[in-house]
Amino acid sequence: MIQKLTPDEMHRLTAEEFRQCAKLPLTVVLDNLRSQNNIGSVFRTSDAFRVEHIALCGICSTPPHREIHKTALGAEETVEWSYHEDTVECVHGLKERGYRVYAVEIAHGSLPLGECDVWNTEPAAPLAIVMGNEVEGVQEQVIALCDGALEIPQHGSKHSLNVSCAAAIVIWEITKQIRQ
Fold this sequence. Notes:
alpha/beta, Alpha/beta knot, 34% helix, globular
């Protein structure tokens, strides 16, 4: 018989243990997300996979915020984050610090996620992914600064996923590549 694990059996980290542990060398850049629920979901996914940092840019709300907390469930207190008025300036700063930056976007020349190995192309360099606005996607001027674009292959009638779902898929794939 299959039974769910109890919280004690899961051996989850405390917030303090999380802050002290090794992180995935990944920064998630949120480019003008409108929905605080989407932002909270990205925080929660980032906590689950020990993402190093979230950069909230432009119109993104920032913690503390009731709507972010509703979906983050406290992850906004464990995952490090920063706010940047302008996504372009944020990406410039990441690149100056040696990050490889990829937009998650359907674009000319985008690499299909799962068919590319973004981590092992230059494993010493930290990685950043840019997730775009729920309606407009990643800004064109931000895409132009990126080292490439990653695309989630889709086979239905729609051409996009909810941004928090897309972030989870991309973070999972990068986690698999890094931990191989």
